[in-house]
Amino acid sequence: xxxxxxxxxxxxxxxGREVVELTGEMSAGELVDALRKMAGSDPGVGFNRFNTLxxxxxxxxxxxxxxxxxxxxxxxxxxxxxxHGG
Length: 86
Hints:
With 86 residues, this protein is an alpha+beta fold. It has helices at 9-15, 28-38, and strands spanning 2-7, 19-23, 52-56, 60-62, 76-81. The protein has one domain: Ubiquitin-like (UB roll) (Roll). The protein has a 5-stranded mixed sheet with strand order 2-1-5-3-4. The termini are far apart. The mean pLDDT is 90.
């Protein structure tokens, strides 16, 4: 299973890249946790399950804190930090 993640704002800065591909079965919350680990050991990483909006396949938007749905092979997830504005 591969999930493609596109990041913006300080999430992209924390990860040092705009696009990340993750493999393996995971929920939305597990995806955010895995990305936090990729960002390094700094406990002050500025994104988490509560302050990040996930848009899956351009259709549904939610936070992993309110909706820990399972992601499926081929899903594309767009991560937007709440602080990014609009």
